[in-house]
Amino acid sequence: MTPHAYLCLVLHNHQPIGNFDGVFEQAYQDSYLPFLEVFEPFEALRISLHTSGPLMMWLADRHPEYVDRLRMLVEAGRVEIIGGPQYEPILAMLPRRDRIGQIQAYGNWLHRTLGVRPRGMWTPERVWESSLTSDVVDAGIEYTVLDDFHFRAAGLRDPQLTGYYLTEDDGRVLRVFPGSEHLRYTIPFQSVNATIDHCRDLAHRSPGVVLTFGDDGEKFGTWPDTKVHVYEKGWLRSLFQSLTANADWLKTVTLEDAITHTAPVGKVYLPDCSYREMTEWSLPVAAQETFDDVSHAMEDEPQWTDLKNFVRGGYWRNFKTKYDETNEMYARMMHVSRQLAEIEATGIGASEISQIRDDLYRGQCNCPYWHGAFGGIYLPHLRNAIFQHLIAADNELERLSGVNEHSVQATASDYDFDGYQEVRLSNNRLCAWFAPGRGGRMYELDVREIQHNLLATLQRRPESYHRKVLAGPNAGGDEVASIHDRVVFKQEDLDQRLQYDRFARKSLMDHFYDNDATLQNVARGEATERGDFVELAFETKLRRGADRVQVQMRRDGNAWGIPISLTKAVTMHAGSDRLTVAYLLENVPQNQPLHFAIEMNFAGLPSGADDRYFSDVNGHRLGQLGEELDLENVLGLSLSDRWLGIDVALEINRPSGIWAFPIQTVSQSESGFELVHQSVCVQPHWIVTGDENGRWSVEFELAACCEQKSETVHEQEVIRL
């Protein structure tokens, strides 16, 4: 048989919910538009294209001419539109109703906009579990693309990693293409001949073979150095020219073509898996470093080629344990999803809940729920966007449930699935969430009017790539490098900025420090913790009145080995944008001063701009929010963000010292390693001694007042220094 092969080129273009408009535009100019312009003249070539819902909707709004050109290519049979869940969620983290709903919602949108209803689907981040099969099929999808890595994990060998396979769950049958990892690394990082020669070799071995390349469209222009390589130096044009020149034996086809004209290779059941790098990123850091070290040490072993097919890292769901912040977003999303399902079951009209469902779906966008070679959870604007949509959905659900300015609620449940009960205080202005089982901390504070969670914070923690930071920058050589190989510093001295937190960056965290502890000790995480109140469980009572609710939390613990009882009570009034917080320490020595501090953190209040600032109780400005403050004998502090339109005010009933400092992380993004502003830490602190009864107390109000927003914001100031 004459050697010949079919090549499915599947592109995945995506920008997440909450990304800056300028980032969308830059990616459009650098990747999406030039790719289309290079592709259009090559009339014999065919591709499959997935554009995520957030990006496609942005394109339809900002560049309808691009959508028109795309529709013409679809009508000409040159581009197959691939669908998927509308706002690019990880399907494994959604309840079944939302998996099916998201896929069907985007299919309907594509049908209205481009005139086609997709038969195939892009699986976000190729995160796969066998139980997804039936839901995907029930949503109307016939086929999808995963990685050949999934198939290797099922025991298949290289000669079998072509064509497509059938998989099944609960009697539903789905076709699955194994995307080639080899092609992911040759395209576009190696010469065009490397791709053509690879296809030719497989065509000789297995005439009629179907090969699949499925990967990010951003690697064609948006990833570092690729714009010059792919377009200015002509790599993509050369690829299309070579594919055209070799069309007598190598034919580009869509996934739909392959399904229509070729038979399945066989049947397979795939393990829970993702692409190779994702399985590594989901491991705990120590395990990730061990995995990396062992894998490199084994590379020269004769049996490693066979053995590595059965060696993989972790499981995507474990990002919810690797990052508590991921689980917080996930739990919040699940709460909204359940509430929506319950209110829908009452028979309420679809028109009344359509916007709620859209906000829920937007709040499921995957990018800030994990972290790997990209910003992910480390990007505050992406986390903020998730909470913005979830809070907007919650606001409407509360309205439909009859909540108004006279309503105030206190409920308790295991909201975050950790085996402990959490407490939720809510009125029409604020929604506060507490974890009595974890130090009585407040871990979420929603300002309903601006749909903002003031506690969408991030803990500074070790990452495996911090070893690269300590080793120094490396651009990856003279050739264009894969994003996984580049080590580029976007600021100097990042190795000196690595700091780690022992505890989460939440609020109402109760510390006992040495009496000579300083701002610098505390800010760098070097102050010794002398109490046992920060993480351990508190006993809890809820009190409900006609116009107020209160959560009271008490712990009998110790500081410096001295038995101390700490009680804190948080009161919320109907219609109020303030929380009243009262602390009582008992059994405090009269003759041994103790250093007590209450930690609070506030997220979404960026540094580096004059319209984001501290001020004292008299309204005098004390500097930008990225600065450090060491105040003495003050009665409060305010943090203002004029663009967000909020003033967060702390008003204390006794003279206090206050430390304030920024929380910054060294994290990895597509373009390099960078310092990212995550939140502002504010710690009122006192040297306390007991009265004649061994008691000491303090009360303060925490207010979140919304004001008029400023007109402009510099995008880079939002997340970076």
Core attributes:
DUF1926 domain-containing protein, 27 strands, 721 residues, 5-stranded parallel β-sheet, 21 helices
Describe the structure.
It is a single chain. This protein has 721 residues and is of the alpha+beta class. The protein contains 21 helices and 27 strands. The strands form four sheets. Strands 16, 17, 18, 19, 20, 21, 22, 23, 24, 25, 26 and 27 form a twelve-stranded antiparallel sheet that branches. Strands 1, 2, 3, 8 and 9 form a five-stranded parallel sheet that branches. Strand 17 and strand 18 form a beta hairpin. The longest helix has 21 residues, at 324-344. Residues 712-721 have low confidence and may be disordered.
Question: How would you concisely characterize the structure shown here?
Answer:
The chain is α+β, with helices and mostly antiparallel strands and 721 residues long. 30% of the residues lie in helices and 29% in strands. It is built from 21 helices and 27 strands.
| Low-pLDDT segments, ≥5 res | 712-721
- Mean pLDDT over the residues: 93
Note the beta-strand portion.
25-35%
Radius of gyration: 28 Å
Helix content: 25-40%
Largest sheet: 12 strands, antiparallel
Sum up the overall morphology in one term.
elongated
Count the beta strands.
27
Termini gap: 62 Å
By secondary-structure content and strand pairing, the structural class works out as: alpha+beta
Annotation field: number of helices: 21
Family: Belongs to the glycosyl hydrolase 57 family.
Protein name: DUF1926 domain-containing protein
Domain Alpha-amylase/4-alpha-glucanotransferase central: 314-395
Pfam family, one: AmyA-gluTrfs_C
